[in-house]
Sequence to fold (204 residues):
Amino acid sequence: MEITLENSKMLHLMRAKGLELFYKNGYYNTSLNDIIQNLSITDEVFKHHFQSKEDFFISISQNLILQRTLDLLIEPAAYKQSPFPLILDMFEDNLNSVLKSTSDHGFILANFINEFNNRNSKINKYLLDILKIWEINLTSLLRKGQLDGYVNHHVDCESAANHIISSYFGVRTLMVEGNNRGLTQQYLQQLRYYFYSISQKVMA
Fold:
């Protein structure tokens, strides 16, 4: 099927609405009929583009979920710079955007990794690959900081990256329960303490 600009826009809209539905209700609580009704299309139109609900979700993963996770990435700076303020600013920007949201159900990537764990290895592989991209990027940023003299040379950068990602997963889960502003401030403060503990030099 030839992908025209009109088709591309329609597919993007279908994925965006589908992701919103999956994010709100969960994959297994969302039927194919729910999707078709929510998209206001016929079964034939849906099957013209996607073979199944699983195929539809994989397409969402490869496009929207990947892009939303990429928004959390910082490529290692080409010039000498401490990685800690970069990471803090990135997380603070993302958490502040959550505070403005009227409907928060947690961190999309973490939610779906948890939902598909031991239930659908095919989909979970796509999600874990996205997580790996984030982990590798963050590890590279910390290793560059180590070479530049900002991160203590005894630090295992891969473990530190996993710790940072896990802590972000955790605070986003807690924020669903409320007190978002307080949790955000506490989390960022604790992250600053952690960065201070693994830094080679005192952060400015």
Q: What stands out?
A: Residues 5-51 form a domain with the Arc Repressor Mutant, subunit A fold (CATH 1.10.10). Residues 121-147 form the longest helix (27 residues). The chain is about 70% helix and 0% strand. The mean pLDDT is 91.
